[in-house]
Structure formats: structure tokens, C-alpha cells
Amino acid sequence: MFVVLDFVTSLISAFCIKSGMDYSNWAELLITNVQVFIIHVLARYYLGQPRELLIFVLAKSALVTALFLLPLYYVKLAMNGLLPMMIYNKTTMAYRHYSDKSTGQLAGATIYMQWFQFSGRIFTTVMGGATDFLPPMLLNWFYQSIFAIQFLWYRQEGAKKEEGQKKEE
């Protein structure tokens, strides 16, 4: 999970830097990228996995070097590959919630905080004029809205079931 997140944040950070976007639109992503890298390094270190740690640090170094040297066209091409991955991931999650009739272990607070986060990002993106990020943000907001509705819906169904069981007893 950390490797994928690290790759994605590195790619998006490179896109933002190479595109000359205003740092207010992407600085948090760069900080997240560094945090994910540090967490991954510490996890490998404390798990006693020096070989995996070395491979990860070398791979990260190669990734950062490649993203630095690649022209913006190729970085954009790689960025376009992220959207279908996100659609697949979020759609399968929503379908799983639907088929399980539950959002599982997702906490309502997490769902709503992410919904507000995406809403805020859409607002700041529109206000800042960085419309390159708008389609994935709108898509994330759409899926997060589905998750919030599912959470409310399945929570109400669970409460009705509990109420019916209490009446039977």
C-alpha cells in the first residue's frame, strides 16, 4: 500500500512542479510524499528488513530521478493512467458496500472528513484556477458522496434490524 501511495504522490508532485502550478495547490502533496517515504523507511527498519529497505530507497531514488528527467509530456501520460485505476478502485469499493449491505469498518467521521476535504479542495482549485486537478477531484468527491450515502443508508438498516430484534425479545 505504501509503495503505491508513494509512487502516486511522487508522480503527482512531479506533474505539479513541472507544470509550474502554484505551490498552494500541491505543497501538501509533496509533504505527504515525504511523510509516506519516512513511514515506509521506518517500518522497514523496525521490522528488521534491511534488504527491502535498501531496495525501497534505491527504487525511490530511481523514481525521483526519472520523474525529474522525464519531459512533462511523459509525466502527463503517466498521470492519465491514474484515473482509470482510481475509477476501478472506488467502483469496486462502492459495489462491495452495496453487495455486503454495509460499509464495513469505515467510520462515519472518516467518511465525512474525506467528503469535506474533497469539497474544500474543489473550492480551492476552482478559486486558484488550477483546473488540471478538477476532474479527479470531482470524481473523488462523487465517490465519497456515494460512500457517505451508503454509510447512512446501511446504518439506518442496521438500526431497524436491532430495533426489530429488541421487540422480538
Query: Which strand-content bin applies to the residues?
Result: under 5%
Please state the average pLDDT score. Answer: 81
What is the overall number of helices? Answer: 6
In this structure, how is the largest beta sheet organized?
none
Which radius of gyration do the C-alpha atoms yield?
A: 20 Å
Cα(first) to Cα(last) distance is 45 Å
What is the ordering of alpha helices and beta strands? Answer: HHHHHH
Helix content: over 70%
Structure characteristics:
85% helix, globular, 169 residues, mainly alpha, 6 helices
Q: Would you kindly provide a written description of the structure presented here, covering whatever features stand out?
A:
It contains 6 helices and no strands. The protein is mainly alpha-helical and 169 residues long.
Give the gist of this structure.
By secondary structure, this protein is mostly helical.
Q: What's the layout of helices and strands?
A:
Elements: H1 2-19, H2 27-46, H3 50-69, H4 72-100, H5 108-128, H6 134-168
Helix pairs in contact: 1-2, 1-3, 1-4, 2-3, 4-6, 5-6
